[in-house]
Specification:
Helices cover 28% and strands 28% of the residues. Strand 19 and strand 20 form a beta hairpin. It is α+β, with helices and mostly antiparallel strands. The longest helix has 20 residues. The chain folds into four domains: 222 residues, Rossmann fold; 86 residues, Elongation Factor Tu (Ef-tu), domain 3 (Beta Barrel), CATH 2.40.30; 112 residues, Translation factors (Elongation Factor Tu (Ef-tu), domain 3); 180 residues, Rossmann fold (3-Layer(aba) Sandwich), CATH 3.40.50.
């Protein structure tokens, strides 16, 4: 077989005109983005490798490398192992599985393609979500010997969630079942029934053998009973959704482009619709309006820009626009809200917990989002809604989200860019989840801030002190409550206004409905942090005495406060010392198995990394610790009122 490319790529014997003609021809072709997905070892990488090989889309040096790799680490003996063309990681080649998403660009005479070969192993479902997020079509592979599996259903469900409506069902390894028509039809019938339940109705089923090449490029004589298209022909002929330009104009602002003092523009990619000079636009969430004066691209001014183009818009009037804002058509503005129902695909080993805060990136805006609450997760086999309070790795669930500020959005079904989001762990900056917004909760539209004339400055002046929070954290038995009580007594004796929120006391009332699971502990701290914020706003010096084992929740509490008005006090006591004290007998119960999820025994304690005050209880007595805290308050100026900006 020839190894030459199928395109007139200019070489040493080609002129510059030939090269430019080739590039112009490439620009005129439309682009199809598609993914390959399915269960482990269904042959995804082999299929893409065979597709490129048979289409003569492999360069000679690539083919030479592929042949060498096939002899060294291939699984086909003397034959070429086409999977190696796509599986680029060493671990993938060693294990024979796809781990990362492998992107490949190729072009035929009729169309350009970007294919994302996504992993089949359940552990790497997160990578499949990445590949599917920009795809127009999914090639779902099924091993003809195994039929429809759980991972097949999971990937199909995720593809449907992410807005993919066109599916090619490639029933692979037909050579291993003797090209049996009944086997193929049974698999197709089962998949179509499942697909119809999740909104996948545009399904083209093709019997293939990636290893042999049957029905990959051309129809195969081995399946005379099949009258449909070969895989490549279907990919070339399928219609691509072009509804983007017909929708109203939306453009998230990526950055403010100001190369010099005489130019200010707002750069971004048009998410939908069309924009022209003279169009009226609205800036959201602020609601300010202006007129587009210029549409600027790398090649100069344009008469219009369409969905998918990256441009800079110059407005006729000076308005406040910054990264994360959205420019949209005045006559069809977006909604603005801060509370939503959303679907989340969880992609991390640590579970998603109700009440925990994460960073959420939607479009170009990043906000703080609280999970409140998880409503249910989806059984991908039965599609039943299963009640849940948390999401584990690879779970797909529906939850409510509360943002710390309003954002402009569109439901994901209308706009992928403005309705899709990722969740980021606040401590590690790892991406831990991905999801899509359904709709704004009605209550978020009906609740507004009420302006009050008496603010925190007035209350602080009245008490001649600054409202603040002293957050004492440490193991059970460390001495937090004892120290908090002593600090409280000293401050009251000095005429200060204080209050103590103690972990045990709060559980008798406000938090009596909560247990000690990880999600209940998160909610326990969330409620107390909100109460502490209100008390500090009232001008009180608030002492919070809670184990609060998780750094993320303590950080959440800190971020509710103004800078300098939250002091973390780490009551540092070794586990052996705390357990030896055991004033309430809790460690003994935990050791006997009578208490589950007990911090330090079968539940972790995440020690503070940068606490304002660290108290080593092996060196300081409770009285000395209390004195140190009061001195720190005085040095920080928290015992003297001053005017601060009201949040």
């Amino acid at each position: 077989m020839s190894t030459s490319t199928p395109h007139p790529i200019p070489g040493a014997d080609r002129s510059e005109a030939d090269f430019e003609a080739y590039l112009r021809g490439l620009e005129r072709k439309d682009l199809l983005r598609f993914i390959t997905c399915g269960s482990v070892d269904d042959g995804k990488s082999s299929l893409i490798g065979r597709l490129l090989y048979e289409s003569q889309l492999i360069y000679e040096d690539q083919l030479a490398s592929l042949e060498a790799d096939s002899r060294k680490v291939g699984t086909r003996g003397a034959e070429i192992d086409f999977a190696l063309l796509v599986d680029g990681l060493a671990a993938e080649r060693e294990q024979g599985i796809t781990i990362d998403v492998a992107y490949r660009f190729f072009s035929t005479e009729r169309r350009k393609f970007i294919v994302a070969d996504t992993p089949g192993h359940e552990q790497y479902t997160r990578n499949m979500v990445t590949g599917a997020s920009t795809a127009d079509l999914a090639v779902i592979l099924i091993d003809a010997r195994k039929g429809v599996l759980t991972q097949t259903r999971r990937h199909s469900y995720i593809a449907s969630l992410l807005g993919i409506r066109k599916v090619v069902l490639a029933v692979n390894k037909m050579d291993l079942v003797g090209y049996d028509q009944a086997t193929f039809q049974a698999i197709v019938r089962e998949y179509r029934e499942f697909g119809a339940r999740i909104g996948l109705t545009d399904i083209v089923a093709i019997p293939v053998s990636a290893v042999v090449g049957d029905n990959v490029i051309e129809r195969s004589a081995a399946t005379p009973w099949y009258s449909g298209p070969a895989l490549l022909r279907q990919l070339e002929d399928v219609e691509i959704d072009s509804a983007g330009p017909a929708r109203p104009f939306r453009m998230p602002v990526q950055w403010v482009n100001r190369p010099h003092q005489d130019f200010r523009g707002y750069a971004g990619q048009v998410a939908s619709g069309t924009v022209r000079p003279g169009d009226r636009v609205r800036v959201l969430p602020s609601g300010r309006e202006s007129t587009v004066q210029r549409v600027v691209s790398a090649d100069g001014d344009l008469s219009q820009a369409d969905a998918g183009q990256s441009v800079t818009l110059v407005l006729a009037t000076e308005v406040d626009v910054s990264r994360g804002d959205v420019l949209c058509a005045c006559d069809a503005p977006l909604e603005v809200a801060s509370q939503f129902e959303a679907t989340v695909v969880w992609m991390h080993e640590e579970p998603l917990l109700q009440g925990r805060q994460y960073l959420l990136k939607a479009g170009t805006r990043t906000v703080s989002a609280t999970i409140a609450p998880v409503k249910y997760k989806v059984n991908v086999n039965t599609l039943d809604d299963v009640p849940a309070e948390r999401l584990e790795l690879n779970d797909i669930g529906v939850c409510e989200l509360e943002f710390d500020r309003p954002i402009a959005f569109a439901p994901y079904a209308e706009n992928r860019t403005l309705g899709g989001f990722i969740l980021i762990d606040r401590l590690t900056n790892n991406t831990v989840g991905a999801g899509l917004l359904h709709f704004a909760l009605r209550r978020s539209q009906n609740i507004h801030w009420q302006a009050l004339d008496v603010d925190r400055n007035v209350r602080a002046a009245q008490k001649t002190q600054r409202g603040c929070v002293l957050w004492l954290t440490g193991l059970s038995g460390a001495g937090k409550s004892t120290i908090a009580n002593l600090v409280d007594k000293r401050l009251v004796a000095a005429g200060r206004h204080t209050y103590v929120l103690d972990g045990d006391n709060v559980r008798h009332g406000l938090n009596k409905d909560l247990g000690f699971t990880a999600q209940d502990r998160v909610e326990n701290i969330r409620r107390v942090a909100e109460v502490a914020k209100l008390m500090a706003d009232a001008g009180l010096i608030t002492l919070v005495s809670f184990i609060s084992p998780f750094r993320s929740e303590r950080r959440m509490a800190r971020e509710l406060m103004l800078p300098g008005e939250f002091l973390e006090v780490y009551v540092d006591t070794p586990l052996a010392v705390a357990e030896a004290r055991d004033p309430k007998g809790l460690y003994r119960k935990a050791r006997r198995g009578e208490l589950s999820n007990f911090t330090g025994i079968d539940s972790p304690y995440e020690a503070p990394e940068n606490a304002e005050i660290r108290i080593d209880t092996t060196r300081l007595s409770s009285e000395q610790a209390a004195e140190l805290i009061v001195e720190t308050l005085d040095r920080a100026g928290l015992l003297t009122p001053r005017v601060v900006a009201t949040p």
